[in-house]
């Protein structure tokens, strides 16, 4: 790919390379997950604790309940649920994160099942009491992928099972002028590479899909394009997607910590139910 082509406007949800599976970036992503001072890959520990506390009640979990943690990363949520007596299965596409999660679980004596798998592929049938998908991962997906994930979640849950997810609210939609011209920076080493490189960044807006794309073009002798898409939702749109997939929405809040819905939050937290 030449630089001119790399810098062109992508299609909605078009992806070139993935930061989640790129072996050059995987160690950096893991560090970001484990960085307790930043929300760049996982929420800070205090917020994770609050989320788990809320979800134990909201998902009606008790000792022996089964939960699938989609996009589990290095197991930060899974470990907390496991310590509460929940039988946890973690699913993530990153081999690096799953390897770390397995090592942590073994070292702490926690019985957690981890799978290297995309949650766009089926992961069970009538075998879980609850499912969760956090850190706005749902909105990264295209409409077709989101539909597939909801079908997979619904199939995996027992009747009456609950599903919790958070999504970006419309408050996150960038200003059309922010990032419109693009930026570039040079590094001796950094997030994308452990050797000198240049990264060119630009944000694209897609009104037709209520989404935006943060594109990073990395130049280090070769050219690699990383595209991070995010869909923003109104309450009506996320409720409609869940109901169209056969769920009944039970609660809507500003997050998955039990904060009542205000309409002013950068997020929307939802708990939905698979009908009996």
UniProtKB/TrEMBL annotation:
<dbReference type="GO" id="GO:0032259">
    <property type="term" value="P:methylation"/>
</dbReference>
<feature type="domain" description="Methyltransferase">
    <location>
        <begin position="68"/>
        <end position="161"/>
    </location>
</feature>
<dbReference type="InterPro" id="IPR041698">
    <property type="entry name" value="Methyltransf_25"/>
</dbReference>
<dbReference type="Pfam" id="PF13649">
    <property type="entry name" value="Methyltransf_25"/>
</dbReference>
<protein>
    <submittedName>
        <fullName>SAM-dependent methyltransferase</fullName>
    </submittedName>
</protein>
<keyword id="KW-0808">Transferase</keyword>
<keyword id="KW-0949">S-adenosyl-L-methionine</keyword>
<keyword id="KW-0489">Methyltransferase</keyword>
<dbReference type="InterPro" id="IPR029063">
    <property type="entry name" value="SAM-dependent_MTases_sf"/>
</dbReference>
<dbReference type="GO" id="GO:0008168">
    <property type="term" value="F:methyltransferase activity"/>
</dbReference>
């Amino acid at each position: 790919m030449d630089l001119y082509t790399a810098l062109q406007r992508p299609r909605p949800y078009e992806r070139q390379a993935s930061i989640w599976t790129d072996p050059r970036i995987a160690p950096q992503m893991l560090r970001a997950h484990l960085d307790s001072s930043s929300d760049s890959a996982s929420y800070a520990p205090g917020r994770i604790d609050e989320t788990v506390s809320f979800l134990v009640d909201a998902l009606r979990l008790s000792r022996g309940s089964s939960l699938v943690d989609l996009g589990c990363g290095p197991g930060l949520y899974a470990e907390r649920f496991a310590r509460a007596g929940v039988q946890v299965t973690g699913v993530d596409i990153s081999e690096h994160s799953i390897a770390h999660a397995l090592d942590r679980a073994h070292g702490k004596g926690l019985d957690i099942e981890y799978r290297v798998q995309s949650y766009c592929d089926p992961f069970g049938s009538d075998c879980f009491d609850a499912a969760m998908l956090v850190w706005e991962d749902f909105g990264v997906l295209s409409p077709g992928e989101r539909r597939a994930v909801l079908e997979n979640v619904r199939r995996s849950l027992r009747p009456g099972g609950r599903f919790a997810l958070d999504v970006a609210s419309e408050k996150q939609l960038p200003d059309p002028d922010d990032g419109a011209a693009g930026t570039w920076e040079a590094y001796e080493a950094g997030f994308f590479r452990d050797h000198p490189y240049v990264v060119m960044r630009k944000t694209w807006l897609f009104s037709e899909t209520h989404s935006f794309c943060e594109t990073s073009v990395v130049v280090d002798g070769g050219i690699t394009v990383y595209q991070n898409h995010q869909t923003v939702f109104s309450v009506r749109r996320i409720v409609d997607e869940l109901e169209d997939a056969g769920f009944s929405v039970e609660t809507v809040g500003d997050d998955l910590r039990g904060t009542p819905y205000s309409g002013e939050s950068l997020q929307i937290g939802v708990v939905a139910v698979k009908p009996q």
